[in-house]
Each structure stands twice: as structure tokens, then as C-alpha cells.
Amino acid sequence: MSAQQSPVPSSTSVAANASTSQETQATFSGAVAGPSTTPAPAQQTRQEAEAARNDRTLADFLLMLDEYEPLIPSEIADYYLQRVGFECEDVRLKRLLSLAAQKFVSDIAADAYQHARIRTNAAGGRARTNQPLGPGLIKDKTRTTLTMDDLSAALAEYGIHARKPDFYL
To answer: Are residues 145 and 112 in contact, defined by beta-carbon separation less than 8 angstroms?
Structure first.
């Protein structure tokens, strides 16, 4: 090994190599990416393809709504839509709104059920330790009763505050 080449690089050679590697990276990234106007058409075609795919998906979904009958009858949906001032003759749009309302009610019911299960499991561990085992106990474990407290807790998650009036306590 010569005196000029040491196994440990000096701080000046490290700084020089770092600046050279940064210039190389800048040149390399510029060569790969190209000018800023080159990727725009490719990105626009990607965006156009994505928009076309979304349009096809929406059109397919609206065609499926022609055959679907939501659980909320159309007369009830029409009544409440008219009551809030919504006027539209497109049956598919009304079915879509009915489907959204059905999903909302379903989510609230599922959350209320979960609250009831948590409540019964929490109370069941303490209350049933002294009770004898029997067929009635097995029936009680599988049965869940939804209460107004469970429903109020589920509605509170959605920003709806529902309470029993004070005179029902």
C-alpha cells in the first residue's frame, strides 16, 4: 500500500465523494424521470383510465339497482324524501338512498347488539357465580335482550343523543 492510499479515507475525500455521489444521483434521477412535462401525459392517461373504470363501475352498480328492492319500501322512502324537499323521478337514485338508510339502520342495530353482548357478558361473570347450573342458565346465555341503554350507546357513536324521559326511571 502506498503512503498516499490509506485504508481509512480522510474527511476531505469522504466529503468529495459525497458531493460527487449527490451529483450522480441528481443526474441519474433526472435521466430516469426526464423533464417534468414527460410524466404528465402518462399520469393523465392513468387518471383517465381510472375515471373510465369508475364510470363503468358506477354504471354497473346503477344497473344492479334496477333489479334490487331495498328493505325500506319505496312508498316510505318517497314520503320522507318528499317531506325534506327532495324531488327526483329516477327510481335508481331513490333506491340508492333507501339502501344507504338501510345500511345506517343495520349498522346501528349491529352496534346496539354488540353493546348488549358486552353488557350481558360483563354482568354474567359476576351474577352467575353463585347460581346453580341448569338448563335455564344455558338458555339465558344464548339469549340477548336489547335495551334502550344499548340503543342509546350505539346511537351516541353516530352523534345521535337519545335518552329515555325522566319519568320512565
So the answer is: no
CB contact set of 71 (below 8 Å; sequence gap of 6+): 98, 102
For residue 141, CA distances in Å to 136, 145, 147, 166 come to 9, 11, 16, 31
Amino acid at the residue 151: L
Average pLDDT per block of 10 residues along the chain, 169 residues long: 46 44 43 50 80 86 85 93 93 91 95 93 61 55 84 93 74
CA separation (Å) from 120 to 117, 126, 134, 144? 5, 10, 18, 7
Using the CB atoms, write b or e for 142-155: b if 16+ within 10 Å. eeeeeeeebbbbbb
